[in-house]
Design goal:
The chain is mainly beta. The chain has one domain: Ubiquitin-like (UB roll) (Roll), CATH 3.10.20.30. The protein contains one helix and five strands; from the N terminus they run E-E-H-E-E-E. A five-stranded mixed sheet has the order 2-1-5-3-4, with no helix packed on it. The longest helix has 7 residues. The model has no long low-confidence stretch (mean pLDDT about 95).
Length: about 70
């Protein structure tokens, strides 16, 4: 099935969770916030939240600076 992550189309397997997607993309450790269809999903829900066809995901990390 197709999703959009950070503006890029990606094919993923049915029943993929947010956690699995981030692991596959090798960004799980770097990601601090995830929104699906403009709604923030809490980190403790990532392993339970199943993605669906045409979901729009934004995976964000925060960088400090000065």
């Amino acid at each position: 099935m197709k999703i959009i992550i950070n503006g890029h189309e990606k094919d993923i397997a049915q029943n993929t969770t947010i956690k699995k997607l981030l692991e596959d993309l090798k960004v799980l450790d770097k990601t601090m916030a995830v929104a699906v269809n403009m709604k923030i999903v809490k980190k403790d829900e990532w392993d339970k939240y199943t993605l669906h066809e045409n979901d729009k995901i934004e995976a964000l990390n925060f960088v400090g600076g000065g």
